[in-house]
Amino acid sequence: MPTTRPEAGDFAPFYENYVALVPVGHDPLTALRSQTAEVQATFGALTEAQALTAYAPGKWTPKQVLLHLADAERVFTYRALRFARADNQELAGFDENAYADTSDANARSMSDLLAEYTATRAATLALFEGFTEVQLDRRGTANGAAVTVRALLFILPGHERHHLHVFHERYAPVLHS
C-alpha cells in the first residue's frame, strides 16, 4: 500500500491533528494492524469495574471509548466506500456523544466489545487493501467538508492514536491508582 500522505485540501482542518499522528513515511494500514493489538492489550487488561470507570464526571467510560472507536471506524469506512465508488451524495456527520450515550456499551462485556472492535478492524483492512490509487484519490463530501478516501485512510489510525493517548494520559492514572 502506498504511503503517499493526503495533502491540505484533501480533508477538513479539523482532521489535521489525526493525520499528523501518522508519522511521515509510515503506512497507515500497518499502523492500523499494530494498533489492533495495542487496543486489544490495553482494553483487554481492564477488569469489568475498571471498564466502567470514567476519568472524570461526564467523560466516557473505557467501554464507551472502545465502542466509539468501532463506531467511528464504521462511519469513516462507510464514507470511504461511498467515495471510492464515485458516489457523489453528500454524507451527513454524526454526533459521537449521542452515539456513546445511546450505545449501551456499559451493559456489554469487555470481551464482547473487543470482539466487535476486532471484527470491525478486519473489515476495514480488507476494504482499504482492495482500493486502487485512483480510488484512494477520489473525494466526496461528509459533514459539510470535502475529503478523499486517502485522507480517511490516514484519519483512521490518527483518530485511534488520539484516543489511545487520552486513555494512557487520563484514564490509566485513575484506573491504576
TrEMBL record:
Q: Which Pfam families match?
A: DinB_2
- Where on the tree of life does the source sit, at the highest rank? Bacteria
InterPro entries documented for this protein: DinB-like, DinB/YfiT-like
Residue ranges of every copy of the DinB-like domain listed in the record: 32-165
For this protein, the record's Gene3D superfamilies field holds:
dinb family like domain
List the SUPFAM superfamilies hit by this protein, alphabetically. DinB/YfiT-like putative metalloenzymes
Name the record gives this protein: DNA damage-inducible protein DinB
Native organism? Hymenobacter coccineus
